[in-house]
Design brief:
This protein is an alpha+beta fold. Helix content is about 20%, strand content about 25%. The protein has three helices and five strands; from the N terminus they run βαββββαα. A five-stranded mixed beta sheet has the order 4-3-2-1-5. It is globular. The mean pLDDT is about 85.
């Protein structure tokens, strides 16, 4: 089970990553491909071309954490709903947990949730 830092945003790279990359190589991808700061405390997720491996990189006060998962059978179902040209898209922690457990989000449905109106947020 992966415990993510509270308040951390989760960014997923749109392009497949070379799974031979370690801390420095992945942090370089965060800077160059995602245009983010790897030491921001956010989580950065990289899948390989076959979508059977994932690496998650994040910074914690004094160093990087790197989580690596390899599926013995099957593939991760990665679904990017947005189609803008940035090198990354954002997920929430619940969606990442579902993807890592093998759930295809394209076939999942969500119930309605409460959202603050723009006027209340800006007050």
């Amino acid at each position: 089970m992966l415990n993510l830092p509270v308040g951390a945003r989760i960014f997923v790279a749109r392009e497949p990553a070379d799974m031979r990359k370690a801390f420095d190589g992945l942090s370089g991808l965060v800077i160059n491909a995602m245009d983010e700061d790897p030491r921001s405390g956010h989580c950065f997720v990289f899948f390989n071309r076959r979508s059977d491996r994932v690496k998650i990189l994040f910074w914690e006060r004094n160093g990087y954490w790197l989580h690596y998962k390899r599926l013995e059978k099957g593939r991760f179902s990665i679904f990017d709903q947005a189609s803008d040209s940035e090198g990354r898209f954002q997920l929430d922690a619940a969606d990442l947990a579902l993807i890592l457990e093998g759930i295809d989000l394209r076939e999942a449905s969500r119930g309605e949730r409460f959202q603050l109106s723009k006027e209340v947020e800006n007050a």
